[in-house]
Amino acid sequence: MKKILVTGANKGIGLGIVTRLLRSCPDTFVYLGCRDAEKGYSAIEPLAKECPDWAERLCVLEIDVADQNSTELAASKVREYHSADDSLLYAIVNNAGIARSDAGVAPIIEVNTFGPNRVFEEFVNLIDPKSGRIVNVTSASGPNYLSHCDEYVREKLTSQNVSWDEIANLVESFLNEYEDASADEKERLYSHVYGFSKACTNALTMYLAKSHSNLIINSCTPGFIETDLTQPYVVERGMTPKEMGMKTPIEGAASSIHLLIEENIGSGFYFGSDCVRSPLDRYRSPGDPPYQGD
Ligand SMILES: NC(=O)c1ccc[n+]([C@@H]2O[C@H](COP(=O)([O-])OP(=O)(O)OC[C@H]3O[C@@H](n4cnc5c(N)ncnc54)[C@H](OP(=O)(O)O)[C@@H]3O)[C@@H](O)[C@H]2O)c1
C-alpha cells in the first residue's frame, strides 16, 4: 500500500484529495491529517458510510502544522505505526492552509509557508527515499503576487538557486515591514500576505526539490474551489459559488492527485489546476500552453 499523509484533510480540498484517493487509488492508505481529532473523526463518518472497507485504508492523524510539538508528535506516531511493518510513507500532501487571521499576517505565513517546511523536516526520514513524493498545495495567488511585487523579491522567489535562508529572510522583512507600517499600509500588506506566503512555498518547493533530488517534490493550485476558505468572497459578492466559477473540492483535488500518481512529471515545478506546468511569476490560465522555462 502507498501510504499518504494529507494535512488539513478534515474538510475542503484536503478531504476531496482523501476521498479521491479512496475512490480511485485502491493501492493507497491515507493519513487524514487534522489539527482537531474530533473534526477528523467526523470527516471520516460519511466516508465509512460510502464504503465500509475504506476504514482499513484510513487513519486520523492529529497534526497542527503551525505547532512544532504537534508536528513532531504526529511524525513519531507515524514512525511507531510503520515500525510494525517496516514501511515508509509514499507521499505527503501539504494542503493545510489559511487565507486570513485576526492576529495579522504572521499566522498566515506560519501555516502556509513554515508549515510545509516544518512537516518536511519532521517527516523526511519517514518518506521512501526511492520513490517518495511531496505535493505542496499553493495557489495562483503566488504567481499573481510575484507578477506585481518588488523586482528583488521576484528574482529571489523565482531563482532555481533560492535557499531556505533566503526565503526566511524575505519573510522576516515582510513581517518587519508589517510591524512598522501605518494602518493603511498594514491593510495593503494584509491583502498581499496570502499570495506572498504561497509564492514563498512555491520557492520552498524548488529549494527542497534541488536539495532532495531523490524525491519528487512539486506544488500546484487546486483552482477556485468552493470551501470555507473562499466562503467570504461568495458573501462579499452576493453571487452563488457556481456563478463565481468555483468548482467542488473533489474537482479541486485533481492537480494534487496528478502530482501524486503520474509518472515523468519532473520535480521542483508549479502546476496549474489543469495539471499543466505553470510559471511562478505570472498567472497561466487553464488551457493555455504549458510553461517550458527552467
Ligand atoms: N479554495 C480555493 O479556492 C483555494 C485556491 C487556491 C489554493 N487553496 C489552498 O488549498 C488548501 C486547502 O484550502 P481549502 O480551500 O480546502 O480551505 P478550508 O476548507 O478552509 O480547509 C483548510 C484546512 O486546513 C486546515 N488547517 C488550517 N490551519 C491548520 C494548521 N495550523 N494545521 C493543520 N491544519 C490546518 C483546516 O483545519 P480546521 O478545520 O481545523 O480549520 C482545514 O482542514 C489551502 O492550502 C489553500 O490555501 C484553496
Written overview of the protein:
With about 290 residues, the protein is α/β, with parallel strands linked by helices. The chain has a single domain (about 1-280), classed as 3-Layer(aba) Sandwich (Rossmann fold). The protein has helices spanning about 10-25, 35-50, 70-85, 105-125, 140-150, 150-160, 165-180, 185-210, 230-235, 250, 255-260, and strands at about 1-5, 30-35, 60, 90-95, 135, 215-220, 270, 275-280. It has an eight-stranded mixed beta sheet, with helices on both faces. Strand 7 and strand 8 form a beta hairpin. Helix 4 (about 105-125) packs parallel to helix 8 (about 185-210). The protein starts with a strand and ends in a 16-residue tail after the last strand. The structure holds NADP nicotinamide-adenine-dinucleotide phosphate. NADP nicotinamide-adenine-dinucleotide phosphate binds near residues 10, 64, 66, 139 and 230.
Largest sheet: 8 strands, mixed
Alpha-carbon distance between the termini? Answer: 34 Å
- Report the structural category: alpha/beta
- Total helices: the number is 11
Strand element count: 8
- Using the 3D structure, state the CATH architecture: 3-Layer(aba) Sandwich
Q: What ligand species are in this complex?
A: NADP nicotinamide-adenine-dinucleotide phosphate
At the third CATH level, what is the topology name?
Answer: Rossmann fold
**Tertiary shape:** globular
Rg is 18 Å
Provide the CATH superfamily: NAD(P)-binding Rossmann-like Domain
Mean pLDDT: 97
Topology order in helix (H) and strand (E) letters: EHEHEHEHEHHHHEHHHEE
Output the CATH class name: Alpha Beta
**Helical content, roughly?**
40-55%
Supply the number of structural domains.
1
In terms of DSSP E residues, the strand content is 5-15%
Q: Reading side by side through the largest sheet, how are the strands ordered?
A: 3-2-1-4-5-6-7-8
